[in-house]
Please model this.
Amino acid sequence: RVKWVASTCTEVLQDDWSPYDSFTIVPYFAFFRRGQTLGLVDNAIGPQQARNKALAQFVHIVNSSANSGWKVEENALTNMTIKELEQKGAMTGLVIEHRKGAVVEKIQPNQVPTGVDRLVEITTNALKSVTVPDAMRGQDGVDTSGIARQTQQFAAQQQIAVPLDNLARTRHMLAEKLQALTKQFYTEKRTFRITETDFATGKPVETAITVNEYDPATGTYKNDLTEGDYDTVVSEQPMAVTFEEGQFQQAMEMRKAGVALPDTVVVQSSTLSRKAEIVEEMRSASQAQPDPVAEAKAGLLKAQTTKTNADAVNANVTAMFSATQAANQIASVPAVAPLADALLKSANFQDADLPPIVPNAPDGIAAMPVDVAANTSPNAPPRPEQPDVGVNAGIERTDPSIGEPR
Model:
């Protein structure tokens, strides 16, 4: 139990048991170890004080060098007195008139000690090392590439990993406490309006959900928040501008890599103020007037599919005809089968059936006569004009009786 006591200097305002089971205040500590708390600013107090002292000393030395003093002989000044030179010796545009031969010399100030400016640099670096380094500020040099800068910023987060981890844990504890208080005390009827973004149009869409609504028919409550078990999930994402810019850059890189992202997706990932209206107008334009490039691509794909099917049918017919011719040759000369089988094995032919690759013709099958003139092979039908059929049939030939062409 938690005892709740609230009072002023003289009067007690509250002194009773708390209605809550645990403390409702969820504090955040950047560092918490064995009961001792430490914030991010605590580590910067010492370096900041040392830096302030070093800068103050540096400024004092610079100011003192502006009026370092004068060396003047007795009765050497003619246009002013020694007192006036003391008061106006550091003024801009000062004119000093002295007697001829008299010496009036300005005392050279001491240079700034090396340790002072070095101390300023050391304390500045110490202050950055305990707070936010230059890499996370984006001040690591103008000649640094964007990718290298992002890598350095990511690596610099390890320096504050413990505070970020404690921040995430505190957010989770706060969400759990809110969920526990809601389950215990949120008993009234309420209507929640959940706003989501429609992926197709990019416009916000509202959905109403009523909780703790009493149903007289069943005597129960619909969407009773006081019942059931809940899981608490706290997600994190960068700032809205940074997140949207990162999404847009990824979309553009994916399109450059060949991923066919629609134009509407790219517009939705941008930071345009009226991107929902732009997406809706793009969809209306695409429906009213189809894209000729898309239609051409679809027609090309359909033609390629038809051509592929035709080539497959042609190849199958050619293979069937070749197989029929080979079978006819084996039936005509059965002794060819073992020789053909040996040649195919030597060529590392893979048989898709039971061995042998080229079987002998079954008994009772007669070979069909091959009519060369009537051969209609779909691949290369032999004709009498082919060289293997008539070598003497051509444009001209030599008469063997006289040895002259005719």
Remarks:
- The CA atoms of residues 167 and 403 lie 109 Å apart.
- DSSP finds eleven helices and twelve strands in the chain.
- The first strand starts at residue 3 and ends at 7.
- The radius of gyration is 48 Å.
